[in-house]
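Researcher: Next entry: Mimecan (Xenopus laevis).
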Amino acid sequence: MQPLPVCCSLLLLLPFILSAPSVPQQSFSHHEDYIFEGKLFQLNLQKKAQTIERNELTVVSKDRFKRDEASSNRTKTEDVDLPTCLLCVCLSGSVYCEETDIEEVPPLPKETAYLYARFNKIKKITAKDFSDFPTLRRIDLTGNLIEDIDDKAFEKLPLLEQLNLAENKLTRIPALPTKLTVFNVNDNQIKSKGIKANVFKKLTSLAYLYLANNQLESVPQNLPESLKILHLQQNNITSITDDTFCKSNDTRYIRSHMAEIRMEGNPVILGKHPNSFTCLKTLPSGSYFK
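Model: Predicted structure:
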């Protein structure tokens, strides 16, 4: 019997040959990678200074953070070479510059929307510091040594929504942008005379106002209707009136958005002013009896 040709043998065996299962291809989302990368930058931010020293990398001198006349003429392509981005973390519109001992607001990339410059040695905010950055939405300068802020420092920030100036040495509040939703000046040295009568009046989007641990003698005037949270604890507030939170000439008035008012740690006895809270959904926290 003649052997079958090799090609015929293969044809006969073909039905019995199982094809190997296909290897599933794992798909990666560039968007998820971007978010993950951003989280890594934030998690490692506090370790950046130690990493620089351990790896013997070049440390940028604080003098290189000084502004010069040419800094305002930088093009977008030059932003990546800013000294700020050599020592700090610049990531897609966010600048993380914490615990770097800088003494003034550093030059920023033009597209900066979020600035975190906490726990540094900044002493003053000038009108020029943020004049060229209309894209800013959040500024966090917690834990610096800020004593003074030019009244026009935030004038050219139409998109600014969150401003954190807690744990500084401020004695007054500057003019604020109208779109602000969160304003935090806890742990400063602000007295009532350092707050202008109408500083909050036009802030129709302000929802969170933190004024705790200051030296206020009275509740600020003309609080906006949009307020949800108001912190005034640990001040020197001695009295309130029927118009502090409500309207004495309108018994039907309700402050509908207000959810929390904290006044503990003040000399005022809230129980002596029962008509001051008729428009509120919940009573303020604080002392009601001696």
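Model: Note for the record: Residues 150 and 185 are 16 Å apart (CA to CA).
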